[in-house]
Amino acid sequence: MKTIKIKPSSPDQGDFVVINESDFDPKVHELVEGETPHQTIAVTLTTSISPELQATIDRAQAECEKVVAENAELKGQLETLKSEMTQGEPADLTGLIPVEQFDALALDLTNTKAQLATVQGELIAFKNDVGAMQARIAELQSVDYSKLKVDELKDVLKLKSIEFPSDAKKDDLLALLTKE
Q: What is the pLDDT of residues 137-150, one digit of tens each?
């Protein structure tokens, strides 16, 4: 806090009295010689907003209002769900997504369940057919490496712990694989 020295109002106060500068009143107080109060300068500045900036501000404000409205609607839906929900029972959430999207998801789930049942049946049949298993193993072991790309060949060599030069060409990599 800034202070200022003023002349005493009675001789028993000494040569000067120190007061807060904000308490100084020139009608009541007299400054000690050499003291000057700090002056406050008020500046008024007028600016304007360009039309482009105002348009951007308006769009942002409209978007904010839209988000606030959507948020209020979602809060209302949530409160409705909470009030309708019985403890221990699953809530009906179909009102939160469009019916078409829900129906498409339900159909996709039904198709996936059917595919899973089919594959499970085929797996059980495959496990019980030793000849089919041996044929599949032979098929998997006879990989045509020539159809693979250079990066894929390098990955296969790394998996098999076979060293190769980093600048090796496809033919060189194929030769390393056929040596194994």
A: 777 777 788 889 99
Residue 6 contacts by C-beta under 8 Å, 6 or more apart in sequence?
A: 16, 17, 18, 19, 24, 29, 30, 31, 32, 35
Q: What is the model's pLDDT at position 93?
A: 59
The token pair that represents 11 in the structure block: 């001789």
Cα(154)–Cα(138) distance, integer angstroms = 23
CA distance 56 to 49: 11
Q: Running DSSP on this structure, what letter comes out for residue 59?
A: H
Residue among 176, 144, 141 nearest 161 (CA): 176
Instruction: Please work out, in degrees rounded to the nearest 5, the angle formed at the alpha carbon of residue 163 by the alpha carbons of 158 and 164.
Output: 100
> pTM for the complete prediction?
0.27
Q: How far apart are CA 94 and CA 26, in angstroms?
A: 76
CA dihedral 91, 92, 96, 97 (to 10 degrees): 130
